Amino acid sequence: MAARLFLRSAFRAAKTCRAAPAPALSRGMAAGGIPTDEEQATGMEKIIMTALKDGKDPYSMLKPKEYAGSKEDPHVVPSITSQRIVGCVCEEDNTAVVWFWLHEGEAQRCPSCGSHYKMVSHELPH
Ligand SMILES: [Zn+2]
């Protein structure tokens, strides 16, 4: 009984007194709120966030693009040196990987399935 009376009076009190409008929430550091990821990132994290905004993927963090593997559309393999070891899963269900060296220059073919691979130079941003 007492609880019901308390609830009723609390409901009336809430109905009659109007609360001041709440100020708009702001996360920005300039507004004194919690800084966003862009505002608090420094160093390598900031470099990566800036590059991703520009549509670049300097550390190959995103899913690689798919290529047909033909002579006209070879698989592009980025490398920071003049050669790189490539593993080709020739068919989707294969359990063995065919490994071979890919060198700078013309596109090379997988010795097993014949897919074309082309190495492109890739520079890390630091
Ligand atoms: Zn292959």
Please write out the topology.
Elements: H1 2-16, H2 37-40, H3 43-53, E1 75-79, E2 83-88, E3 98-103, E4 108-109, E5 116-121
Parallel strand pairs: 1-5
Antiparallel strand pairs: 2-3, 4-5
The site of zinc ion has 7 residues, from loops.
Give your account of this protein's structure.
This protein has 126 residues and is of the alpha+beta class. It is built from three helices and five strands. The protein has helices at 2-16, 37-40, 43-53, and strands spanning 75-79, 83-88, 98-103, 108-109, 116-121. The strands form two sheets. It has a three-stranded mixed sheet with strand order 1-5-4, with no helix packed on it. The protein is elongated, with a radius of gyration of 29 Å. It starts with a helix and ends in a 5-residue tail after the last strand. Zinc ion binds at residues 88, 90, 98, 110, 112-113, 115. InterPro entries: Cyt_c_oxidase_su5b, Cyt_c_oxidase_su5b_sf. This is Cytochrome c oxidase subunit 5B, mitochondrial. It comes from Eleginops maclovinus. Keywords: Acetylation, Membrane, Metal-binding, Mitochondrion, Mitochondrion inner membrane, Transit peptide, Zinc. One of its GO terms (biological process) is mitochondrial electron transport, cytochrome c to oxygen.
Summarize, please.
The protein is an alpha+beta fold. Helix content is 24%, strand content 20%.
Strand % is 15-25%
Please give the alpha-carbon distance between the first and last residues.
Answer: 72 Å
Order of helices and strands: HHHEEEEE
- Biggest sheet statistics: 3 strands, mixed
Q: Which term fits the overall shape? A: elongated
GO cellular component, one term: respiratory chain complex IV
Keywords: Acetylation, Membrane, Metal-binding, Mitochondrion, Mitochondrion inner membrane, Transit peptide, Zinc
GO molecular function: metal ion binding
Protein name: Cytochrome c oxidase subunit 5B, mitochondrial
